[in-house]
Amino acid sequence: MKLLLPYIFVMIVIFNFLLRRGSNKQEQRTKAFWDKESKANLTRKQDISKLNYITIPNNLPQLNEGDVQFDLAVSENKTLMRRFEELESLREKKILNLSSISNTDLKIEYGAANLTELSSYDDNYTTLIKNLSTIGHELINLGFKDKAAIYLETGIELGTDIKSNYYDLASLYIETNNDEKLAYLIKKAEELESINKEVIIEQLQEMSDKRKVILSDDY
Fold first, then answer.
1. Rounded Cα gap, residues 80 and 13, in angstroms
2. 7-25 residue pLDDT tens
3. Would the pTM of this model clear 0.70, i.e. be above it?
4. Which of 43, 89, 148, 156 could lock 136 by a disulfide, CB 3.0 to 4.6 Å apart?
5. 130: closest CA among 162, 101, 98?
6. Cβ pair 45, 114 in contact under 8 A
7. Cα–Cα distance between 3 and 23 in angstroms, integer?
């Protein structure tokens, strides 16, 4: 027991040292956060009229464009009709993808007075990509795969991080043997700044690898 006492004492000293160091680092992080937040709240309102606002493309398949079967199928699908209506209403609103920017950084960049307005534009973006993904998925189920691909591809180009958007589109590319577009889809996933990034890439890569195995077996 006497032989163990020095080691126990050393362990206690080391533990206390690490505990104090961790506490000091946390205090520094907390101070840095509140200093930054204070600076953000004092930033004057900036002009946000010339930001890179998102415009909903005009090439998205719409109702009453001459495809009677499409019009009928959509009109009988309550989920699709609601999504189409929401998507159309967004055309009159300002849309920004600010998902990778914290509120504090937004205030520092554009002023605290613009935060509420910018947040509403970001909410519009969230609504937009959800609608694009849902419409694409529902159109696949109804058999309108070419039209579905347009909605899903629009979501990708607008930087969506919705997992099903990627998986549905990958499935369409695999079904049509479009390896080039599948590779591009994986590349777009690698450019994401999202907590969903790794799981999306992993799933897409798995789908791609399975396709390669099937092709090799065929030969």
1. 65
2. 555 566 565 656 677 655 6
3. yes
4. 148
5. 162
6. yes
7. 32
Give the three-state DSSP class for 112.
helix
3-state secondary structure of 119: helix
pLDDT of residue 115: 94
pLDDT tens-digit readout, 87-129 = 999 999 999 999 888 999 999 999 999 999 999 999 999 999 9
Note the residue count of the chain: 219
Q: How deeply is 9 buried, as exposed, middle or buried, from its count of CB atoms within 10 A (0-12, 13-18, 19+)?
A: exposed
Neighbours of 136 (CB within 10 A): 27
Contacts of 34 (CB under 8 A, 6+ apart): none
Label residues 152-162 b or e (16+ Cβ within 10 Å = b).
bbbbbebbbbb
Burial annotation 77-112 (CB, 10 A radius, 16+ → b, else e): beebeebbeebeebeeebbbbbeebeebebbbebbb
Q: How confident is the model at residue 2 (pLDDT cuts 50, 70, 90)?
A: very low
H-type helices in the chain, by residue range? 4-42, 68-75, 78-90, 103-110, 115-142, 145-157, 163-175, 179-190, 197-218
CA distance 64 to 57: 17
Cα–Cα dist 32/24, whole Å: 12
